[in-house]
Write a structure and sequence with these properties.
By secondary structure, the protein is α+β, with helices and mostly antiparallel strands. It is 17% helix and 27% strand. A hairpin with an 8-residue loop joins strand 5 and strand 6.
Length: 127
Amino acid sequence: MRSRTATMWWGAAIESPDPGALARFYSELLGWPIGHEEPGTAIVVPPQGSVYLVFQQAVDYQPPVWPPADGRQRPMMHFDFQVGDLDFAVADAIALGASLATAQPQENVRVLVDPAGHPFCLCLDQD
């Protein structure tokens, strides 16, 4: 993403009934420390180095619906990407094939939908 710098974070957000417990599981599994924890949120911080995202083909794929709706496939996870210029990053993502979601829950975050129907968030760097 062109508006990002090398020091900006990115990651995948995964839903869980107990984020702290799930974070502790992955922290132990991966040997990565918990970098931040607060009610409802826990972040496992990888060591310096590359992070990989793996995309696999799924037979009979049903895209999730954002916002979640009864009886429809809800998002089980989504990606969050921190950006320096939210408007530029949104325009860039749309130019690449994403679409802006109708529901926007936060002023400093934009929810978009990728070409396969997965929601993802662009989060304004507020430092």
